[in-house]
Design a protein that fits this description.
9-stranded mixed sheet, UDP-N-acetylmuramoyl-L-alanine:D-glutamate ligase, 9 strands, 257 residues
């Protein structure tokens, strides 16, 4: 059994966040360990409120889990404050966490900002140097790299810029015009993973599924290129099997089938 620790926020509508991570890790035959950073009041139409858990309690979750079970990979999702980022960085150093995947959640899919500029700076300066891979979408890649990212050559530019911060980089191209292309840059080579656009509005949780499946494949000792390919394919299947949930954006369905 492989153990994957997800450190993320809770989605009360169940489509993204810690709920999507648990479903993904479980679907891939691994055991999900969790540390919740924040709880949200949200549905398919938007996020009404975000409540950060006390910093001491977040640290206690990490310590209590890590002192009993050594995770084979760690996925980081919603990190809404600099204090949380520093606490997680401390835990990574203390426990020697490996296969650390950062999904830099800066904005909810419905548009609400989830990370301010000061927190982004700490993410870049404190956390990414300790991570193995970061998985921004186009908007997040632009923030991390310091420029607009809307097309393939800009994705490649952003990946090179973000790589200077330390971790390998996967820029997700789900919002590109035309075909969807994810790119991976490991500091030497640029890999492209292509997929035809899936015509659906049931995409809530896509980023969470990608990053948690990537962490799980890394836990299974896949190399970064193979893990990215498998996560790309797994996420596409989750989108294809998505379903309506509420009156807004529907949810993806992570399944090994």
């Amino acid at each position: 059994m492989k153990y994957v620790l997800t450190i993320a926020g809770s989605d009360s509508c169940g489509g993204a966040g810690i709920q999507a991570d648990i479903k993904t890790i479980t679907a891939l035959g691994s055991h999900a360990l969790t540390a919740i950073t924040a709880v949200t009041a949200q549905n398919s139409l938007g996020v009404s409120a975000v409540h950060e858990l006390p910093l001491e309690f977040i640290s206690m979750q990490l310590e209590t889990v890590a002192e009993d079970v050594s995770p084979d990979a760690v996925k980081l999702g919603m990190l809404p404050s600099g204090g949380i980022i520093e606490a997680i960085a401390k835990a990574i150093r203390r426990y020697g966490f490996k296969n650390v995947v950062v999904d830099p959640v800066m904005k909810a899919s419905t548009g609400r900002e989830l990370m301010d500029a000061a927190t982004v700076t700490l993410l870049k300066e404190v956390l990414l140097p300790l991570a193995d891979v970061v998985t921004p979408n186009l908007y997040e890649a632009g923030i991390l790299a310091g420029g607009k990212v809307t097309k393939l050559d800009e994705m490649e530019w952003a990946a090179r810029e973000i790589k200077k911060l330390g971790s390998d980089v996967i820029v997700k191209g789900g919002h590109l015009e035309g075909s969807c292309i994810d790119i991976l840059y490991d500091g030497k080579n640029m890999y492209h993973f292509h997929g035809e656009r899936i015509n659906t509005s049931n995409t809530h949780g896509t980023g969470c599924v990608f990053s948690s499946s990537l962490a799980t494949f890394l836990a299974m000792e896949k190399d970064i290129v193979e893990a990215t390919r498998l996560a790309h394919e797994f996420t596409r299947r989750a989108i294809e099997q998505g379903y309506p949930c509420g009156r807004g954006q529907g949810a993806v369905y992570p399944s090994a089938k």
